[in-house]
Amino acid sequence: MPEWIMHFPESIYLNIKDAVDRFVLYITVHWDGFFDAITTGLRSFLLYINKFVSHIPWWLLIAIVFVLTLKICKKVTKAVLYSLMLFVIGAMGLWSYMNMTIAIVLTSVVLSLLIGFPIGVLISASKHADSVVKPILDMMQTMPAFVYLIPAVMLLGLGNVPAVIATTIYALPPIIRLTNHGIKQVDAEVVEAAEAFGSTKWQMLIKVQIPQALPTIMAGLNQTIMMALSMVVTCSMIGASGLGSEVIIAINRLEIGRGFSAGISVVILAVILDRITQGIYKQKDGETDGKRRSHFKSRKSGQALRFK
Amino acid sequence: MENGEVILKVENLVKLYGLNKQSARELLKKGADKKEVLRQTGVTVAVNNVSFDVKKGEIFVLIGLSGSGKSTVIRCVNMLQQPTSGKITFENQNIGSLSKSELIDFRRTKASMVFQNFGLMSHRNVLSNVAYGLEVRGVKKEEREKKAMEIIAMVGLDGWENKSILSLSGGMRQRVGIARALTNDPGMLLMDEPFSALDPLVRRDMQFELLSIQRKMNKTILFITHDIDEAFKLGDRIAIMRDGMIIQNGTAEEMASNPADDYVRDFIDSADKSHVLCAKNIMITPTSLIHTRDGAGNALNAMKKTGFSSTYVIDEKMRFVGVLTLEDAMKARAENLPIDSFIIKDADRVAPDAVVADIMPLAAHTRFPIAVVDEEGRLKGIVSKAAVLSSLS
Ligand SMILES: Nc1ncnc2c1ncn2[C@@H]1O[C@H](COP(=O)(O)OP(=O)(O)O)[C@@H](O)[C@H]1O
Ligand SMILES: [Mg+2]
Predict the structure, then answer these.
(1) Contact across the interface for A187 and B166, Cβ inside 8 Å
(2) Ligand 2 geometric centre to CA of A269 (Å)
(3) Which of A245-254, A295-304, B69-78, B288-297 has the lowest mean pLDDT?
(4) B70 ligand 1 Cβ < 6 A
(5) B121: nearest CB among A190, A195, A196
(6) Which DSSP symbol is given to B188?
(7) Is B102 near chain A, with CB under 8 Å?
(8) What distance in angstroms lies between residue B64's CA and the mean position of ligand 1's atoms?
(9) In contact, B207 and B174? CB cutoff 8 Å
(10) In a domain, A130, yes or no
């Protein structure tokens, strides 16, 4: 029996590795200016947001969480609980790390929203664009998070900026998908009515489709925030500072307590952000009949568990 | 444009859904029907060579079973659907030749639509739903809300303007839908089964309301329904559709007295005629009529001329005052008194839209033919006991 029946023949070798390596090398050399510009721009944006976040006094942030929870979830117990949880992060000495993490996540989410929302709108309007974007999204969502780190590092080096890029890309699909989905599932008769009353395409979008889709878009935003948070620890491997780097350091030095307190802080952040943003779209949902979108309930809990 | 002139003209309208339109059209030319075309070519014939006119100020009703192509016809009028062929003319303007921006303008000012499931925007309150048409037209907030408030009051929703759509009942939601259409002050209302989603009792209210609005605002309405009672109640003229074609087109009376085929006859027989015919259908003009300021002598003369033993009395604004009998008129003359104190002022009266079923109990014990009186109290005609009974046979 010839060897090649049981083992893949070594003589067949497609050299993709080298091609990709060369491609990346080419880009890093020739597009240097471009990536420098991105790095510089993003760095100052990130710094700005970080400065903003760290200028909020700790008691004010706790108060904001308290008031927001009270307003959105309408439960005093929850408001007290979340404020207390936030207080615990500070008490564990991780407040400034948390600020850095919030800054990275916030920057990534803002970028995801800026990129993803228009794409979502576009593919809801154009079948052509939809057929191009959908497979890319499918691919992105099956890709392990680590894979995004490689090009980010290769092109931009180590640090917070590549972390923001990797996080942005990783967190992009839900906002695109749910913006698209939200706009498409607006009641056909409502859209027809808007058309019958002489709306232009633009008026239709601004005055009818986006407002009607808002609860779903908010659900997408919630998922995007959760995805961004889930990248916190992963991105520390390419030099992102904040709570994630505490976890990585703790792992390297086998400091279980240090790792646990940083890890639990990430979970706390996730729970608070999840509940508050979820509360917002649930509220909106109640205003628009409540019968739609029940299929998102499955994502409601268990989200935070992914970070352990 | 004057009332009675043709405002909307639909000529040879055809709408096909599917790919193989050319061969479908050839089959249709050979006289194949909808089922045959679908079987041979896979093309759905939604509308097949439909022509009709709507005159200004009338309610034109398209009636037919579900799937007969009614919605497609009405959607072609404001180009929510592109006709496959045929010509639609509104106020002497060919709708098919409008540019994109002209079409938007047409939708904003000429034809407003009312939808079966209301088509309201749940993220807006009643007021901004009603003002939507003016908003997209670019009318200033203050002005459009003022106009919207007027219409909201007219459809009986005042006090609800800041409420969410979701807090409204079905009937109220459709009032919002109608108000939204009226706020644009369109030349024509396109109503696609507007009351089909409502409870029967609410539906009756809404039908009545629509008639009074139509009279008040003199609107032309293209109205779609699958309910023959509704068609007879509302329609000045009615067209019956089947399989994408109009099989008969005429007034309710014409249709009831001379149905084109068995299909139409079945349709009409399914209607309860006592709920179809209204006072206005069976009333006659009173032959003897006097004014309150007339003396008893005039009254007696009027009665002598017609040979009736009573006469109807109206005031200077044509409003119905009551009935004066021959004996009372003679008494008034004998005592030389004004007739006013002799008039029977509680004589029975009904609205022009009162259906025969409702008039029947009155007719059973009335002493005189019943006066038909409009909202302003004006005497429109009279309905005799005999007319009520004979309308049912
Ligand atoms: N978008 C569409 N695509 C294919 N067929 C359609 C479409 N819209 C309507 N039809 C078909 O056209 C016919 C007429 O439909 P419609 O005008 O909605 O009827 P009606 O309003 O009288 O119930 C039906 O057979 C329906 O299946
Ligand atoms: Mg229909």
Answers:
(1) no
(2) 52
(3) A295-304
(4) yes
(5) A190
(6) E
(7) no
(8) 13
(9) no
(10) yes
Contact yes or no for A289 and B122 at CB 8 A: yes
**pLDDT tens-digit profile of B237-256?**
999 999 999 999 998 878 87
C-beta B391 within 6 A of ligand 1 = no
B119 near A CB under 8 A = yes
Tokens 């206005």 appear where?
B280
B321 by DSSP, 3-state: which?
Answer: strand
Question: How far A197 CA sits from the closest chain B CA (Å)?
Answer: 5
Residue B107: is its pLDDT beyond 90?
yes
Any domain includes A271: yes
- Tell whether the torsion through CA atoms of B135, B140, B145 and B151 is positive or negative: negative
Sheet holding B59-64, edge to edge: B111-114, B188-192, B220-225, B59-64, B237-242, B245-250
Entry pTM: 0.76
pLDDT tens for each residue of B275-332: 667 888 788 888 788 888 888 888 888 888 888 888 899 888 889 999 998 888 888 8
Quick check: is A129 in a domain? yes
Q: What is the interface pTM, i.e. ipTM, of the complex? A: 0.76
The protein residue with its alpha carbon nearest to ligand 1, atom 2, reads B17
Do the chains contact at B122 and A288, CB–CB below 8 Å?
Answer: yes
Q: Which domains does chain B show, CATH number per domain?
A: 6-110+186-273 (3.40.50.300), 280-391 (3.10.580.10)
Token pair, residue B137, equals: 């037209």
Domain count, chain A: 1
Answer whether residue A209 is part of any domain: yes
Token digits of residue B228: 């023959």
CA distance A147 to B249: 70
Q: How many CB atoms are located within 10 Å of the residue A55 CB?
A: 9
- For residue A126, the enclosing domain spans 15-55+92-299
The CATH code of the domain that includes A227 is 1.10.3720.10
Test site for ligand 1: of B14, B39, B45, B68, most ligand atoms within 8 A of the Cβ: B68
Structure tokens at B187: 């030349």
